[in-house]
Amino acid sequence: MSPTLAGTVFVASLVVAVAAAYRPLGDHMYRVYTGTRHSAVERTIYQLVGVRPDGEQRWSVYARSVLAFSAVSVLFLYGLQRLQDKLLLSLGMPAVPDHVAWNTAVSFVTNTNWQAYSGESTMGHLVQMAGLAVQNFVSAAVGMAVAVALVRGLARRQTEELGNFWVDLVRGSLRVLLPLAFVGAIVLVAGGLVQNLAAPHEVATLTGGTQAITGGPVASQEIIKELGTNGGGFYNANSAHPFENATSWTNWVEIFAILLIPFALPRTFGRMVGDNRQGYAIAAIMATIAVVGVAALTGLELAHHGTVPQAVGASLEGKETRFGVANSATFGAATTLTSTGAVDSFHDSYTALGGMVTMVDMMLGEVAPGGVGSGLYGMLVLAVITVFVAGLMVGRTPEYLGKRIGAREIKLASMYFLVTPVLVLVGTALAMGSAEQRASMLNGGPHGLSEVLYAFTSASNNNGSAFGGLTVDTPWYDVALGLCMAFGRFLPIVFVLALAGSLARQTPVPASAGTLPTHRPQFVGMVVGVTIILVALTFLPALALGPLAEGIQ
Amino acid sequence: MERLPSWVRQHLAALRALLVLTLILGVAYPLVVTGVAQTVLDDRADGSLLQKGGKDVGSALIGQNFTDSGGDPVGKYFQSRPSAAGDGYDPLSTGASNLGPEDVLDVLAVPGAKDADGEPDTGRQSLLTRVCARSRAVGELEGVSGARPYCTPDGVGAVLKVFPAVGRPVRAVSANQACPAAPFLAAYQGVRVECARPGEDLSAGRTVPVRGSATAVVPADAVTASGSGLDPHISPAYAELQAPRVARERGLDVAKVKALVRQRTTGRALGFMGEPVVNVLELNLALDRG
């Protein structure tokens, strides 16, 4: 079988597997978020936390709960890193420096998992397990909770209530993520991932050198890093490290885990609004963009344009032999189309245009299928913008699922959309305006600009992958990128919840002959078009100075 | 409690929620997974260690250097790919080179100059020159041609700096070949090509990589660093290339070594996942066992 054909079958098998999980997992999540019964364990948790699980919250209370939980999480994670040398299982690592600890705390709480540190030489096992991996679960559960609150806003009528954040958080963590993570972790150990609490084990190699074989609770963290679209690696080499991704089939499992929940959530949405066709339409929009993104990146990497790839004969720098070029590119596309940011190959060494595709994937706003939860709410905001654009064309008041999209709604949706471009472009401009920050670039010329643009794109969209050549563990980048991650996560969340509140208050208008149907291929095509046009208009000038200048000669 | 302002109560509830979830997801979950893994899959959970003479010599999943103390390849062993992890295959410093596809210009070492730490200036090799130098070294070791597209015969990137950047050239410099090297090309569009003087700023010129007519014999994985820096595998083509040298050094029949390579070659999982690979440490251990 030729590499191209094998790579195509690889992608096709993933499509089939994700499609097969769409209904069962989407239905399961529907039951999780709409069920009225609490398990005994959950009731105990609610008692310990001191919340009434059956009391529902207005959008503003829901938003304050999200922000309170996230603020406490940042402080806790910051403290854990600063005190790690005084705690168990530190492996002798010193306390994490303050700017790195701040950046990492924000990074994991915002589901970005940008890494300004190198795992094997910075973090002990306790911080990895009880700090970073916990946020891998709960930051994903927060994303799902916000998405579900928005869907409730669309589904409900004449109410102020959007559900209870604490219940959504606990159920998402314990009923959705934990069972999948447990099964997945054991599967990955069977593939060769390590799972122990050992310190590095020194061995004498065949030629008389020494090598430290590292240990750690890796499999349990690896699986939730993918399932929760987090992406923060146990080791610096992330999912390229054989102990994080041992074989070509664990690579498949990890890509599947990345795509699983974001692609099943549209089913949950369809069930909750009482029309499965709406879920299929949203999933179709995501799938259309995703398939094009995967095909473009895989094709460009296999074609290996550019001086060094041509000299080598393949785009193999920064890629592992066991995965090969095609499967590495598929992982690269999956990780940037979702807000994961895990890498099994290093994007900085991709071909110039291949590297640009990974950036464009993120610039789409992480909606195809996007992060766990954040992809669905981002896509629903785009659907709202699309019905507005369509309404302008025919001169009607736009509506989505029976809810009128008036001035307040469209303002909130527009502000949601404007947050990340502002952060990305202003951040990149500030960095490029200072000689000191420019010195962090590893590569010169247009590729250097690509490194900085990638960093701010990744942080602001909460992706977390990097053009790794850029030296980012400096106080300036740690603070600037930390702020981008925090604003890029929480401003959109507040706008989404406000939008949910204003939709929930409305009385649905009955569909009429003039209503734009939102479950047909026509609507799918329109949302895809709106998404691509918005992104192209916003980012094309920056891309032209970076990867386009480098790739087109 | 009830007397506290509501925002304080909310943050206390958040803290309690975080602590409870930390106990479940951050302590119980990883420990239970560790318990199960250590019970039923302990070899793999401990890192798939390989032994020789009863002692651990490495992991089946982690590549290693097969070089002597001077960093030169040990002839009787199959060699791993180049590595960007520390000084090579260092699991405490994993990672990739992160150099881009158009990283083609070296910074030439200026003789006698010192760097910021007071050490002799070593310059900086571009990714292209690294590829060319590796290709040449592997070619010499295996007794085949190390030539490659975009590489000079002396193993650096074949790149010209042409002046002025726009318009008819009046000056051309072979940017990666320090004087007194003979430029790989005598003339470019009628202009004589010069060797490069270390320290001269050539950034104003137009960068022109020159492909040349070479075809590569040395496989791609032999001249590129992996993502992790710990890649335990090489391609079957690179193993095939090394087999005659290993057989000669060990006084073995080449056919026997090649048969051993085929035994240690893993195909794609399920026929379509990944690429066929040869595990270098396992192959070398099998050779040592005889």
Walkthrough of the structure:
The complex is a heterodimer of chains A (553) and B (290). Chain A is mainly α. Helices cover 65% and strands 2% of the residues of chain A. Chain A has one domain. Chain A has helices spanning 3-34, 40-49, 59-82, 98-109, 119-122, 125-155, 165-191, 218-227, 248-272, 276-303, 307-312, 324-337, 352-363, 374-394, 407-432, 435-438, 445-460, 475-504, 521-545, 547-551; strands at residues 201-204, 210-213, 399-400, 403-404. A two-stranded antiparallel ribbon of chain A has the order 1-2. A two-stranded antiparallel ribbon of chain A has the order 3-4. The longest helix of chain A is centred in the N-terminal third of the chain and has 32 residues, at 3-34. The model of chain A has no long low-confidence stretch (mean pLDDT 96). In chain B, 31% of the residues lie in helices and 14% in strands. Chain B contains 6 helices and 10 strands, in the order H-H-E-E-H-E-E-E-E-E-E-H-H-E-E-H. Chain B has helices spanning 6-40, 42-45, 127-142, 236-250, 254-263, 280-289; strands at 49-52, 55-59, 159-163, 171-178, 187-188, 191-196, 206-209, 233-234, 265-266, 277-279. Chain B has a 5-stranded mixed β-sheet, with no helix packed on it. In chain B, strands 8-10-9 form a 3-stranded antiparallel β-sheet. In chain B, helix 4 (236-250) packs across helix 5 (254-263). At the A-B interface, helix 1, helix 2, helix 3, helix 6 and helix 7 of A face helix 1, strand 2, helix 3, strand 8 and helix 6 of B.
Question: Could you give a quick summary of the protein structure above?
Answer:
By secondary structure, chain A is an all-alpha fold.
Secondary structure layout:
The complex is a heterodimer of chains A (553) and B (290).
Chain A: H1 3-34, H2 40-49, H3 59-82, H4 98-109, H5 119-122, H6 125-155, H7 165-191, E1 201-204, E2 210-213, H8 218-227, H9 248-272, H10 276-303, H11 307-312, H12 324-337, H13 352-363, H14 374-394, E3 399-400, E4 403-404, H15 407-432, H16 435-438, H17 445-460, H18 475-504, H19 521-545, H20 547-551
Antiparallel strand pairs in A: 1-2, 3-4
Helix pairs in contact in A: 1-7, 1-9, 1-12, 3-4, 3-6, 3-18, 4-18, 6-7, 6-8, 6-14, 6-18, 7-8, 7-9, 8-9, 9-10, 9-12, 10-12, 10-13, 10-19, 12-13, 13-17, 14-15, 14-19, 15-17, 15-18, 17-18
Chain B: H1 6-40, H2 42-45, E1 49-52, E2 55-59, H3 127-142, E3 159-163, E4 171-178, E5 187-188, E6 191-196, E7 206-209, E8 233-234, H4 236-250, H5 254-263, E9 265-266, E10 277-279, H6 280-289
Parallel strand pairs in B: 4-6
Antiparallel strand pairs in B: 1-2, 3-4, 3-7, 5-6, 8-10, 9-10
